[in-house]
User: What shape does this take?
Amino acid sequence: MQKRKIIFRDISWLSFNNRVLQEAADEAVPLRERIRFLGIFSNNLDEFFRVRVAALKRMIEFGKKSKMHLELTPDAIIEEIQEIVIEQQKEFERIWNEILRELKKERIYLVNETQLNKTQQIFILDYFNEEIRSNVIPLMIESIQNFPVLNDRSIYLACKLSKKDRSIPQKYALLSVPSRRLPRFIILPSKNADKQIILLEDIIRFCLPNIFSFFGYDTFSAHIIKVTRDAEIDFDNDISTSLIQKIEKGLKNRKKGKPVRFVFDKTIDPSLLTYLVRRLGLLQKDNLIPGGRIHNFVDFMNFPDSVFTKKSLRKKPFLHPVLKNVTSVTNIVLQKDVLLNFPYHSFDSIIDLLREAAIDPEVVSIKITCYRLADRSKVINALTNAVRNGKQVTAVLELRARFDEEANLEWKTELEENGVKVLLGVPNVKVHAKICLIKKRVNNRTIHYGFVSTGNLNEKTAKVYSDACLLTADRNIMADVNRIFNYLEQPKTRELLLKSCKTLLVSPVSMRRHLMQLVTREIKMARLKKPASIILKLNSLSDEMLIDKLYEAAKAGVEVKMVIRGIFCMLTENKKFKIPVQAISIVDEYLEHSRIMIFHNGGKERTFISSADWMVRNIDHRVEVACPIFEKDIQQEIKDIIQIQLKDNIKARILDNDLSNQYVNPRNTKKIRSQVETYNYLFRKSS
Assistant: This one.
């Protein structure tokens, strides 16, 4: 049997999500955060089935017989996924029951419809009649010839209606739980210091007699079910159809995508379950996942804070030291490069830079890429105000940003109504680079400045995502940023403009070649018995060509160290590696999102920040940017932060060949939690 070369990416992803589950299980994590991690785990798993499992099922349908990584067919991969997910679901239920016990110690109770006192029953009935009744319409599914399409972001109560004396036949019904329109958590009137919470679906359960009484039934049971659907949007090759029309059509079709997972309360009536599976046209291989009473745990990311007596210990972001007490961010950036490290540094500096550009009479134009934006985006506000002040503003919106397509369509309308020129990316290539170019005219001289970032221009996620953003007026960097925007405005000139970039590494034209060259140089140095090292921080590493190059480097004696948050397909344990590869994953309070690359380069270190992971899609099928760092003090700061992360022995897990997610053992050394240490490191510099 041929020895495997890499770990299959989807199995690796499930290992990452298990690290999220580990955070929920960790008793040292504050209770509200443990609940939030359960919500994150649930949301991650939903997206995994909507995208990755859906893709595997498509491969089966399209008859692709070629074997995949690990010598497995798509059928075998799906079977392995189901086994892992069922085991994780059992662990999820165990953790949730443990958290419920811990909540009780704090006198916080999640009660159901059978545990209400008289006062609460009256409250519930009033709440149901005033808020819920008009939002709940039962579907008598046995009377419907074509079974209704179940929304994959909703949960449903599958109801069995019967009469004790059996005078009328039992019936089945479905009720959609309106958790998008109404709060999922309702705080009940409680005595003393108790805090009691009931879920929206349990209020509906309590009120089933009110909903179905006119049918003549007196006995009711209701269990939660949920369908997850294929979320991929197909783009046909009809050139007469605009991208916007394709997106709008795709969003409608997504709601009717094929089911890829069916989860249900394992205590559901067996006959009702059999009926639902049959009417939905599902088979056992369609990932039928039994679970507990509660589903759609994604809502638990918003579990009510008000019931907790202990306030959040999350520290507030602070201003970068060179931007404190200054009248103009722009003036500082024109003098020197500034690296912002979110969420430690405040995102307000980005907004201030754009706001200043919007009102600066010398600013002629602003060009910016937007992948994911906050709901009430201050970035958009700055851009529209710039137009009002006579600036030419160009925004590149990526309408194919998965699950943000609808929001970006709405932003397109708002921007265009306010006079912003909106570009919709490039055919067949997503624009994932995070760049901004501001043009000033000073004494008949053109000055370019702006930024290159690893993360989205989203002030909400900037509070919880770890990202790096370089504010710069470096002529070489800005010249390449200008070339990229010229390309985005005229995609037919791609080869001419993107290949002429001399400073930035740009996907899809030059990044792979440059990365291979950078690794090759380290290999040559190692073979000459000279110092050679590669330090990588990425979200994901799955590109086989680059992984093979890292294998070659490790065998040659290059010191390879990696911090990889999510997908990790490389096998790190190999007797042929001259220096053991160090690979860890950090899952903690903040989501590690920045991409950093440091190459020893014969003692003249080359340091990059990047929007691109080492995945085929990022390197070959997206517009991405890796930006070199030239300032020595910023290079050192990046290296210091990476070294702190590599020493983490509280939240770091070892990425071994078995995906065991073993924590790094602190042994007898000082305990280091890298996110806390990074905050302290940057805060000391700020002070």
Q: What stands out?
A: The two ends are 59 Å apart (CA to CA). The chain is about 35% helix and 20% strand. The mean pLDDT is 89. The first strand starts at residue 108 and ends at 111.
